[in-house]
Amino acid sequence: MERFYTIQGEGTYSGYASWFIRLAGCDVGCVWCDVKESWNAGGFPMLTPQFLAEEAEKSGAQIVVITGGEPCLYDLTNLCNELHDKGLKIHLETSASSYIRGSFDWICISPKKFKKPIMSQLQKANELKIIVFNQSDFKWAEEFGKEVNKKCKLLLQPEWSKTTQMLPKIIEYVKSHPEWQISLQTHKYMQIP
Fold it and tell me: How far apart are CA 116 and CA 107, in angstroms?
């Protein structure tokens, strides 16, 4: 759908310069998605893994973030191979509602209620990021926090339109559950894509 060089605004790698590859196509359909135009894969050009890797290398970035839509609708093995051949680190952002195919240096899984993740894929997560839209999302977080590996970082992030309402609740939750951390959409505060 699009490729761009920016600052990673969320999660463990927030603040790092990153080349984003946003793939079109999504079968999850979150009502609060901020890139709904990514849902339909039609109308976007098909680009080769070689072309995407060359573009990423030319950007000067050291990290490439593959996101969507839902990027795991696709087998990303060839794209990962091309990017790794260029010496780039590859991060994946996925709901894990489809199988993760490819070789990644960092995997952020953000499960969505609209289409639950494949449970076996949760063990691959380096980072579990739960979007907190309402109070029930804390229970949702606990459910999946038990399923990831012991080294996985646990993050709670307020949904942008609910930040004022949910951030105080997240702060209190993290204070009483210190295994969790807070993630903010810092790119929105900085007003960058």
Answer: 17
Q: For 22-36, 45-59, 124-138, 141-155, which range has the lowest pLDDT when averaged over its residues?
A: 22-36
- Which pLDDT does position 190 carry in this prediction? 82
pTM of the model: 0.94
Q: Is 92 exposed, middle or buried (0-12, 13-18, 19+ CB in 10 A)?
A: buried
pLDDT of 51 > 90? The answer is: yes
Structural domain boundaries in the chain: 2-189
Q: Taking the alpha carbons of 151, 102, 100, 104 in that order, is the dihedral positive or negative?
A: positive
CA 68, CA 88: separation in Å to the nearest integer?
19
Residue 154: strand, helix, or coil: strand
Query: What's the full length of the chain, in residues?
Result: 193
Domain 2-189 grouped into CATH 3.40.1620.10? no
